[in-house]
Each structure stands twice: as C-alpha cells, then as structure tokens.
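User: Could you check the structure of this?
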Amino acid sequence: MTITSYNPADPTDLVVAVEEPGAEAVRAAVGRARAAQGEWLAAGAGARSAALGRIAEAVEAHAEELAALIVREVGKPLAEARGEVARTAAIWRYYAQAPYAPSGAVHETAAGPGLLLTRRRPYGVAGLITPWNFPLAIPTWKAAPALAVGNTVVLKPAPEATACALRLAELAQLPAEVFTVLPGGAEEGSALVDAVDVVSFTGSTGVGRAVVRAATERGVPVQAELGGLNAALVLPDADIALAAAHIAAAVAGYAGQKCTATSRVIAVGAAHEPLREALVKALAAVDDTVCGPVVNAAARERLTAAVASAVEAGASVLTGGGVPERAGWFIEPTLLADVPAEHPLAREEFFGPVAVLHAAADLDAAIALANDTPHSLATSVHTRSLDVALAAADRLDAGMVRVNAPSSGVDFHLPFGGTKGASHGEREQGQAALDFYTVGRTVSVLPGGGL
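Assistant: Sure, the predicted structure tokens are below.
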C-alpha cells in the first residue's frame, strides 16, 4: 500500500507518496540499528555532542524551507510553523550538551576498601512513534535525548507528517543505522513495538493503550502521551480581556490541534458573564493566520458532527460552529454553552477549535469540575491572587498548571506529561527524557587481594 500526505489547506495538493515498507522491513531496520548501537555509544560524548549540534545548525540553516513544509503538510499557520522550527533547533542544541552530563555517582562502601558506582546506560534501540501535529518538534524531543545517551533510533512518523520526518532525517546526516525514519501505518507501528528495546509513543488514547500493552508484555520500557481534556479556570479577579485572549489562542491556535489546547472553560462566580462576552469576541476575531485547517476531512466531519450532536442535546452555540465555503478542511472557532455533562464534548478530546463554557459557583466547584475528566494534561488558571494560584496548583490533577498563560505553552527543558489516562510511564523532555532512555546499573569494584 501507499502512504499519502495531502495539504490540509488544499486537498488536491499531494505532498508526498511512499510505499509502506511492511513489518519485515521494520524488523530489518531495527536489526541494523542494534548492530550500529555499540559503535555509536563507543564514539564517545564528544562525537555525539557534535553530531547533535550539527543537526541544530542544519535546522537553523533551512528554517524557512522547513517552516514552509510544515505549513504545506500539516496546515500549521506560518508563525507557529516558524516557532516550531526554532524550537526544534533549540531542542537539538539543548541535548547536544547531555552527553557530557554525569551518568552516575560514586558511593562509599559499607565496610572495607572498594568502589561502588551507579551508572546509567542506554537500552539499545529506541522505537519512536510520533503524531503529525508537531512534525519536527515531537520527533526531535524524543530522538535527541535517545541519541544523546547512546541509543540508536528508529522513528515511525504519522502518515500525515511523512515528508517532514524524511526531511529531518536528511538534514540530520547521521548514519542511516543510527537514525532511521520508516514511514508506515499500523502494521509498521506494531512491528516496531515488537522489536525495539525502549518505546516512546505520542498519539491517540486507543492506539497508545495498545502500544503500552504490547511493550509491557515484552518487558520493554514504554512511555505514552495520549489524550488530554484541558481546562481553563477564570476567577472573578482576573484580567478578563487578557484571559479571554489567552484562552482563545489555546482553543483556536493551530485549529486546536495540540494536546495542550483548551477544550473546557470554567468561569468562576461573577467572571461568567464578562468572560462569556469577551471570549465570544476574541474567538470571532480569530482568522486563518491563527487557526488554519484541521488535518483532514475525517477530522472536520468528527468535529461538526459533535457540535451538531451537542446542539441536539440542548447546547447553544455562542460563536462559530460553521464550515467556511472554501477549499481546505476549515472549521470556525467554536464556543458552546449548556453542553450536557455526559456529552462526549464534555468528556473526550476532539482535537479541534471547539470549546465548552461552564459556570462554577466558586473555586472549589471549579477545581472539582476541572478534575472530573479521565485524562488531564494541562490546566490554566487566571487570577491576580497568588494565594488562589498556589492553592489551585496544589489541588488540580493536571500534569502541568499554567497561571495567567494559555494552557498550550510548553517549556522543552521541563518535564512534560499528564495525569490519569493522559500519560503512561516517565515524563518526556528535560532531564526526565535522559532518565527514560537509560537504565540504572550498580557496579561494585572490590580489591582482588593483597590489601
């Protein structure tokens, strides 16, 4: 079968078409990566650091080309695409320093002479399965730490981001056995999980749970970033106009196709009416340079069907909800009210520019509502009170809490992950990623005699 990737803003524009390699090709690629891993590790910290630094330089040298490719392949607005390219280069440069970091510690023996060491060593071959929404940054924040600590990498990108992944591999100029990109679908992804030594996955909840089960049955370390149903809490003392601007950006930026996008807005007490008015105005002002299309026809159909279902169940559309009469998979930024608590829009991630407005009597009710979700990645809190901000941060279940900022921001040098069903395994990014791609060993060196 053939993997095809089309431009979401112009569905007649075929970006790339490649043949699916099949499971046997995946197993062969993993075998080559495993054979090359010892040499990659033995090359030493200096060689790995220099290699990652050169990738950062290559990404920067081709920044406009890469940004244009992101726009074309996944429909990301140009400003966000440029930001992703800059972040990609920064991540490679950040992890270029990691090979020089301490990989363990020296400890005193309990009694007598000797030397006790703890060391962290790479697993071997890292299998990475990545989504389309950050086609350079997410493969990078998985591959860079894995490579830095001495693993080799086999990456299976989402079909919709095939061209971006292949171009990244070209610019990396690493030996093919050290950094392999294998486009594919479910068959290739399953074969990869069954063959590698450590697995990192980002994608849908259903697929992610299957990946976790398969890796766990093999006894292979696995991390999985899955769905997120993220909330924004707005207190009466907040700067309402600023909060609305932040929330509109988190709802509609890149058409809501971020795992940290806001899909539930919780107005506390007297904040409800002014926030409703300000948020409707802010979302109505969002244009294609901010929102852009959703990734394909199926995504738009899923979103419009969910909105129609909610309206049928008694919800009201405060703004948006329509489909522009133009080429591409566009949908208007949408805000709903009075959505029944059991409706899927209030319980599931739909990955689009659609949000639900709720009212809460006080902070306690708002936190209870925010926590009433099967998967929570990021929550934003908007208030002028430091006491309220700190109390909310302590009580919210989210893996990341952002105060007076959009839920959709990410700091690549800090741990990234959610709670409940949003994440499985160790965190991504920062030092946490280096820990995930290595296993701890204890070494005891005792005198051989004569002392």
